[in-house]
Amino acid sequence: MKLIFIGADHQVTGSCHYIQACGKNILVDCGMQQGVNPFECSKLPVEESEIDYVFLTHAHVDHSGNLPLLYARGFRGNVYTTEASADLCSIMLRDCAHIQMQEAEWKNRKAKRHSGIEAVEPLYTMEDADGVIRRIVPCAYNSTVQICEGITIKFTDVGHLLGSASIEVWLTEDDVTKKIVFSGDIGNKNQPLIKDPIYTRQADYVVMESTYGDRYHTSEKPEYVQDLAKVISKTFARGGNVVIPSFAVGRTQEMLYFLRKIKEDDLVPEFPNFEVYVDSPLAVEATGVFQKNIYTCFDEDAMELVRRGVNPITFPGLKLAITSEESKEINFDDTPKVIISASGMCEAGRIRHHLKHNLWRPECTILFVGYQAVGTLGRAIIEGAKEVKLFGEVVEVRAEIMQLPGMSGHADKNGLIEWVNAFEKKPERVFIVHGEDSVSNAFTDCLKKEYGHNAYAPYSGTRIDLLTNTVEYEAVPVLIKKHAHAASDVFARLLAAGQRLLNVIRKNEGGANKDLAKFADQINSLADRWERN
């Protein structure tokens, strides 16, 4: 019964943890790294084709974004997640694949103009995304699910995103049962639309995030609606646009909730009929998923609107841009407007076009409403960059740069402490993950010294024996090196395919001689063809 830490250890993105128990290989999350991460992540201890199950806390790509890559390298097990997360993943993973393919195409067009640059392959394709989406098993909140003999799980609403969950995992070997709780991303209280986090009371081990483990949200309840209305009014008076880089799933729907209230209460009286553009096909689809999950995920304030027959996230003047042509037309209209577009960290997607058109205009406002990881364009702009590069051009930053105070889907330090202190008995050990290096260390020290928890912040590769609560291997941080040539990713995919073939061969041991002979002939024929090439 082992636990190995793979990703988001002393860094924020790329969440991934490995469990070996009951003869099964399990991943909890399989996230994509975003921005600049200081440390290398360990490789999986087994081949991707040997992974039996993935338990997914929520649909954000830093937790789910590498699932198609896992599939591309041979994974054919099941992915267990909540019903709402399953709905969101069905659109988000396809969107990720589209971005991967689009960026590879752009790089290859550029390569044709420069000799000596080899063509690149996307990290994964739409077929890989579709393949892993078909492996997803939706689960209801608060229902225990027996995965196989000795392994049972339960999803509990943790209030971070529609469908987000902490996962309770019971493992039984040799009549010994251990319970591990993976927090996922713990939500902030009093968010619009979705419910507050629900606490778990029992655990032997806890693996918890620490994103905001060194900071506090404002002690007063944020006045999101009033603050947003002031930004809009001030910007429109200058003749500018309010451009909001927003995560397509979660934050965009919250912004629509606020904007509906602003319109309803006439909080921008000088511009009563102002238009709001949501320029993200993914955000539009995600909004439909929110509508579908109203009764299981919305909080009481949102439900009160629903009972009155009011749609909490739509209003007059809301425009949805789906096609590229509709997106381009937004910037040909000089009328002051609100533009909400993804991605939230400005790393990809249509937001980069809107920044190109608005960053240099001093009358405009760029309003950030979510976390900006180190190394992202969004982080650079917030930290005062005077100019940025977009589509090969240098753009001067002259627009007003703002953040909406208190706007966060993550619990702050107090919220994290409240969550871990809700356990009726202190867990045997609390593992701290999903936080920047200094934050992970500081939060770990706080839990140990101030609250008496046996807390530990592992680096990627650390291995724990869960039966004896011992650290079998304590990894040291490995600084990330420059990325190898993209072709190495393609070769890694080929090696993974070969490993999957070996696993299939082993699983067919004892089969009918006739079938095995046919299988061997097929493999030899394929090998002969490639050797001739």
Folded structure, characterized:
45% of the residues are buried. The chain has 16 helices and 23 strands. Helix 3 packs antiparallel against helix 4 (126-133). It has three domains: 2-216 and 409-473, Ribonuclease Z/Hydroxyacylglutathione hydrolase-like (Metallo-beta-lactamase, Chain A), CATH 3.60.15.10; 224-403, 3-Layer(aba) Sandwich (Rossmann fold), CATH 3.40.50; 487-532. Strand 20 (429-433), helix 14 (437-451) and strand 21 (455-456) form a beta-alpha-beta unit. With 533 residues, it is of the alpha/beta class. It has helices spanning 61-64, 67-72, 83-112, 126-133, 224-237, 251-264, 281-292, 294-297, 300-307, 324-330, 351-358, 377-382, 413-421, 437-451, 487-507, 513-532; strands at residues 2-7, 16-21, 24-28, 53-55, 78-82, 136-139, 145-148, 151-157, 165-173, 176-182, 205-209, 242-245, 276-279, 318-321, 338-341, 365-368, 387-390, 393-396, 400-403, 429-433, 455-456, 463-465, 470-473. The strands form four sheets. It has an eight-stranded mixed sheet. It has a seven-stranded mixed sheet with strand order 7-8-9-10-11-20-21, covered by helices on one side.
